[in-house]
Amino acid sequence: MLRATFALCAAASLWGCKPELQGELGQPFNKVDGMIGVWELNSFSQTDLQSALTEVRDLSELYIDGMVTPMRITLNEDRSYAVSLEKGRNYFGDMGTWGLDDEEHPTFLILHTKDDMGMVTDTLQYNLGAVVRPHDSILDIVYDRPCDGDPVLAYTFSFTRQS
């Protein structure tokens, strides 16, 4: 009983000496501004979501050969986007408009693909690997590929900011 009381008093005295936080966090970063720019594909991987070991395979060679820029996504300030593809498969459409599910706390990148006449042809939604701030240089876009409605594979496209 005496030990328990002593331990409780010691813990309370240490907690009472906890320094107060100083300074401010400042304004949150604008997540939309973080997305704007030219993004070049630098790696591509596939995760087997059905595997108990969650196996991840680096399949970058399907896109990256060291000779050409494999894929570039340009996200513009006016919310338009364009994709240029030299090698591999395009899961993003050629052009359209882009948005986020929540501009303060985004989880998804939403692409509205358009045809040459400017008509919306499809709406695509991708997970963001992380929130991108204006000073970050990496953008991870994750496409969960479904089979019978359930995702079985996750493709992770890692892009590096070019401008």
Quick gist of this model?
It contains 2 helices and 9 strands; from the N terminus they run ααβββββββββ.
Q: Would you write up a description of this structure?
A:
The chain is mainly β and 163 residues long. It has a single domain (28-161), classed as Lipocalin (Beta Barrel). 12% of the residues lie in helices and 43% in strands. The protein contains 2 helices and 9 strands; from the N terminus they run ααβββββββββ. It has an 8-stranded antiparallel β-barrel. The protein starts with a helix and ends with a strand.
* Fraction of residues in H or I helices: 10-25%
The assigned structural class equals mainly beta
Shape: globular
Give the strand tally: 9
SS element count, helices: 2
Q: How is the biggest beta sheet arranged?
A: 8 strands, antiparallel, barrel
Low-confidence stretches: none
Distance between the termini: 66 Å
Give the amount of beta strand, in percent. 35-45%
- Rounded radius of gyration (Å): 22 Å
Assigned CATH architecture: Beta Barrel
List strands and helices in order, with pairings.
Layout (H helix, E strand, L loop, with lengths): L1 H15 L14 H5 L1 E12 L7 E3 L12 E5 L4 E6 L9 E6 L7 E7 L5 E9 L9 E10 L2 E12 L2
Antiparallel strand pairs: 1-2, 1-3, 1-9, 3-4, 4-5, 5-6, 6-7, 7-8, 8-9
Note the main attributes of this structure:
43% strand, 163 residues, Lipocalin, globular
